[in-house]
Every structure is written in C-alpha cells, then in structure tokens.
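Sanity check record (used in CI):
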Amino acid sequence: MQDQLSTAPHGMKNGWFVSDLEFYELQRTLYEGTIWSIIVSMILTLFILAFVTLNPIISLFAILSVGITIAIAVAGLIFIGWKLNVLENITISTAIGLAVDFNLHYGVSYRINTANNRLERVKIALEQMSGPTLMAALTTSVAGALMLPSQVLPYIQIGIFLVLIMGVSWICATFFFCPLLSIGGPSKFLQFDSLRFNTSLLHSKKNKKLTTIVNESIELPIKQKKSTEISIAETRNNTNKEFQFHRDSSLPTFTRSIIHNAEIHYTISNGERPDLDS
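Expected output for Protein dispatched-like:
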C-alpha cells in the first residue's frame, strides 16, 4: 500500500483507506432504536394501565410483569439464534402491546370485584379471566404455529414470535402477576374513583320541562271543558231570552209560530236577535 502511495500522483499521495460503515451504522441504529422503543412503550403502557385501573400499585405490578415477559421473550429469541435486524426490531417493539393484554384483564377484574380480602379478589379474577385469557393465548399461538411450515423466513420468524410471546405472556400474567396481587395487592388503598360528571342540573331541567308538558296537557282539556261549558251556558241564556220575542196577538196562531221559528233560526245563525219591532 505504501509503495502504491509513493508512486501515486501528487494529489493522491496523502490518501487513506476508509471502510464502508453503513452496515455498522444500521446495526447501531437498530440497537439504540430497540432500547428506546421498549422504554417508550413501557412508559405509555404504564399510563394506560393507570388510566384503566385507576390504581398506581396495580399498574406498577402489571408493568413489572410486562417487563419480565419482554426480557424472557427477547432472551428466548436470542437463544434460538435470532440476529438483530429490521424485522426483529419490529417484533420486539410490538411485543409489549401483546404482553400487556393479559395483565390488563387480570388487573381490571381484580379492581372491579367487591371482595374485601385480596386473596378472594385474586381468586375471583382467576375464575373470571383465566379461561378467556387462555383461549386468547391458544388461538393466537395456533395462528403463529400455522406459519411455521412456511418456506418464507419472515413468516417463520413471525410464527415463532407469536407462539413465544403468547405463551410467556400468559404464564407471567397468571403465575406471577396474580400471585403478586395476592401478596401485596391493594384493596382500597390508593384507589381512585372514575370521573363522573355532575348531571343533576341537566336532570332537573329535564324534569322541569317534563312537568311543564304534563301540566299543559292536563290544563288543556280543563280549559276546553270550561270554554265548552261557557258556550253551552251562553247558548242556554240566549235561547231563554229568544223565547221572549215580541209576539203580535193580532196575528193568527200559525203565522206567529212561523215568525217564532224564524227568530230562533236567525238568532242561532247570527248570534243576535232580529229587530222585529221596527
């Protein structure tokens, strides 16, 4: 190399050899990105657990179980010969979302039951959630196992990842998280109630509006009845008055009856007595 540099042109005599470092830069980025993705995912998972359970102790126990699950899963993948690459980075980043599922089910079931003893709470949580979580783990594991006979390497890796993460997650949630709750799980300590908006004003307005509608519906027939009674009374009074019409005794009886009927008909139609005297 030195001989070639000595006989090289003047502009190339002081040159040096540089290796292709793009591959190593990719490996460094994948390594740091994997660690940061795990840290950020764990923090977000902790906030979600705290928001759902409304208890920091249950959330801390659950995030501890999730961390152990991720550690065991990554150790298992390294043991079977996985190398850090783009696909492996993606699978490890998504492992936290799959690992927190069973812990969340057990934690919520532990929180909502009304037993005073923590052992009874854990027992009820296991009775309610062990079956559904086991079925969920089995179905996802079977879906991953069906990918193993494939000839495509990414399919095989995804299948191995699903089988491993589901098994480890269910075991850690059932045999680590639940016993941890039975030992130090809170009953009412640091338990916050869910936020409930004060709807008393809204209900009072609705009740007032409903009462107004009911009162109006009751008063309307009463007003109609009163107006009908007033009309009937006025009609009777007018009828009694109309029977006191002017009658000319000099007219024949038949003619007087015709005039009387005409007066009644005119009064009913026009609402006033005809002036027969003029």
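The chain has eight helices and no strands. If this sentence no longer matches the regenerated tokens, the check is flagged for review.
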